[in-house]
Structure formats: structure tokens, C-alpha cells
Amino acid sequence: MTQPVGSDSEFRDSFLTGAARAFFVTAYADHVETAPERDDDFDYSKPGPRQDWTDNAPPTPPNAYALAGQLWAALHAANGEAGVYTLRLRAEEADGETPDGEDFGFSLAMQAMGQGVSWFDNHKKFPCEVPHIECSQYSFSDEAYQAE
Questions:
Q1: Structural domain boundaries, residue 30
Q2: In Å, what is the CA distance from 69 to each residue of 114, 118, 123, 133, 146?
Q3: Average pLDDT, the chain
Q4: Between 20 and 30 A from 46 (CA), which of 4, 52, 144, 147?
Q5: Residue 60: which residues within 8 A CB-CB, separation 6 or more?
């Protein structure tokens, strides 16, 4: 996936890409699921059997990256001096391997939204405070949900 983030850290870029995708896909699924209530004529892409919302949602809009940046800052604030780089090191120590930045960001964003998904579902525990981040279908404009 091409990353529209351009910092000096590949890990940070991939973390923000994963977190942004989690925020947007969650909002997109909510938006599509409520389309009949809105009398929406647009034909939204939905996952079929054994498919994932992530693969069916339109491209991640810029506002989702801004929300991912808020998560990055909130994780730093919630974990003191630890910051996300230290959380990555803790994850690496716990699992014995370097975490994939995109997966790490996606999982922590899902956890921050209270989606019932956590990094720790598939990885060993380590000290990590995950703040709540509000995200819903109203976090993005209707145009963001329509593929070009």
C-alpha cells in the first residue's frame, strides 16, 4: 500500500497508515450499514462472504490520517515518556519480534475506538495504556465514502 504519510520514520508512517485505515473503515462500515435509513441512492461497496470491510472501503481520506495523528499523540500522553516508539519496543520484547507498524497502528486504533479488538488478542501483554478516540460515520464527509 502506498503511504501518503511522509515523516522521517518508516515505523511512524506505517503506524499512522494502519490507524487511519482502521478509523476510516470502521466509519465507512457504519455509514454503509445505515444507508437504507438515509434513503441513500449510492451503491456502496460491501464485503461478500469471507471478505473484509478493509478491502471494500474507498481510499482512506486525509482526515483519517489526522485522527491517526491524534491517536499517536494520545498514546504518548497516556503512556508518559514511553511514547509509541517505546510501546513498539515493549511489544517486540513481549513477542520476540518487531511488530508490523501498520498492524500495530490498526490494532491500537480499533482498541482506542472500543471495537472489541485489541493488539493483545494475538500478542503477548506489555504495559500499554490505550486512550479512547471517538470515531463514527460522522467523522468524515459523505464524499469520503464514495469511491471515485
A1: 10-145
A2: 18, 19, 23, 11, 24
A3: 89
A4: 4
A5: 4, 17, 20, 21, 24
